[in-house]
Amino acid sequence: MSDAELALRPLTRAEFDEWLPRQVAGYAALIAASGAMPAQAARKKAELDTARYFGGGAATPGQFVFRIMAGQVGVGWLWLGVPGPDPDPLMAWVFEIEIESAFRGRGYGRAAMRLAENEARARGMTSLGLNVHGQNMVARSLYESLGYEVTALQMKKPVLPALDLPGRPQVRINFFRIEQAFDKRTGLRLG
Questions:
Q1: What does the alpha-carbon distance between residue 142 and residue 137 come to, in Å, rounded to a whole number?
Q2: What is the count of structural domains for the chain?
Q3: Residue 19 resides in a domain
Q4: 0.85 exceeded by the pTM?
Q5: How many CB atoms lie within 10 A of CB 45?
Q6: In 3-state terms, what secondary structure has residue 182?
């Protein structure tokens, strides 16, 4: 797949209205799947985060959502923020890239990322950043192969709740050992 075979086309208003709720739902699912928070809280976070970036709707300055096109066929979506949320005013941000499942494995993701780099460069940016959820090994591998470097890493380990903390409900776990004796010859319980 060459970059010339793929193109980015700005979304129409109807496409944006179709994309935005899917984006929120997909983002919420990723947050919940990562274990960062329960599904309901993840949904709320996804809604708030997305609303922050699209306060002006589809025409919000600095937010560009594209349809990834292979010829006349839409194969995915790309959301690019210029500049991105990083304090670096010259870093663009890929908030979302999605290749539709029927078109995965054909090199479209790699080519689309190169097109995103070109878009960022054309808009005066000197770097391009993104987040990738830790469990998405396919995406992580792609980004590393394109030269992206890890700049931050979040990790999590579940722990059991501490007992006897002030202001916290008490958790008590009691274990009982029940012993019963049986007559091996008759199988009857003794005692």
A1: 9
A2: 1
A3: yes
A4: no
A5: 17
A6: strand
